Amino acid sequence: MYGSASTHDLPSTAPTGLENEDPILLAEFEARIARGEKIEPGDWMPALYRKQLTRMIEQHAHSEIIGSLPEGTWITRAPGFRRKMAQMAKVQDEVGHAQLLYSAAETLGKTREQMLVDLINGKSKYSNVFNYPTPTWADSNVISWLIDAGAIVNQLANAKGSYGPYCRALDRICAEEAFHLKYGHDAVVHMATGTPIQRKMMQEALNRWWPAIMTFFGPSDKMSVHTEILMRWKVKMASNDECRNQFLDMYVPKIWEIGLTLPDANLRKNEETGQWEFTEPDWEDFKRVINGDGPCNAERLAVRRAAEENGAWVRRALSAGKTHQYVRPLA
Ligand code: COA
């Protein structure tokens, strides 16, 4: 079965969930978006815009803190002092990204405490790719280079979107991700041009990660649930397939350039259409993973749960004498 990152073909039906909105306010809101204006927290917005943005930014924030875990486990084992320092700085940046994103999501009304409760209880999603193990240093390098590359493709597009606080957070995040990308590329090139054993390790790690990387951009546009409304309101500035195609365009040549191969015999660019063709990802497996049944979901959430519990006394101490939302034990 073949897939293709071809031009998205989204349904053109009017979005549901807007029946109770004031049509005049809704028209003004959509006109502002059409003019390229930013929507700010105090501005009028349809409940569905608020809900969709909260969902997406919250999932993004969770992906940053959970995403710091697979690379974080390699800080103590990174080969050499310089790599160790860089790995540590990168992981710290990722947690900082979560901080920015939770703050952006909070402007929409949901508390950070509730978001973390929803993450720990498995109610909120986070990126599928962080539910896979990193058995070798080479696996960590694949994340540093290619997952960050994928994230930049998505985030550079969405940084031009309609919601001010999210766009400003993405601008800052993209600036830092650009360093991560260079760090990851350098680490992969180092391994791929090293000893035969290092090269083999790098190739095997890439083979392990490729299927997850292909699904990182979300289901194909035909299957995507939220793309239509998110693109209509310029929250997503490119569809899942467009991001996937752009990533393949930018990074497959770079991967091939350093002599690595990709584990998909059908991967090729159709020069006539400009679209990449590839073996259709296993979307059933993708669904299982994002719904909690991937190889590392339980482990990742257990780490977060422990972090919340172990950090409770710090939050209590910081807010001593004040009524603070973070002092309550997590349900
Ligand atoms: N990992 C986990 N879940 C994913 C996913 C992924 N790679 N791609 C899609 N999903 C989930 C969606 O969250 C949605 O679930 P929900 O309805 O329970 O919330 C479902 O699959 C259907 O997907 P779709 O309709 O395509 O969702 P979307 O329009 O929100 O697009 C993203 C998915 C990831 C492209 C989009 O949310 C996005 O750009 N997010 C911001 C960037 C981000 O989070 N990056 C990951 C970390 S760097």
Automatic annotation (TrEMBL):
NCBIfam families: PA_CoA_Oxy1. Transmembrane segments: none annotated. Its EC number is 1.14.13.149. The gene is paaA. GO terms for biological process: phenylacetate catabolic process. It comes from the Bacteria. It is an enzyme of class 1 (oxidoreductase). This is 1,2-phenylacetyl-CoA epoxidase subunit A. GO terms for molecular function: phenylacetyl-CoA 1,2-epoxidase activity. GO terms for cellular component: cytosol. Keywords: Oxidoreductase. It comes from Hymenobacter cyanobacteriorum. Residues 1-15 have a biased composition (Polar residues). Residues 1-21 are annotated as: Disordered. The keyword Oxidoreductase applies.
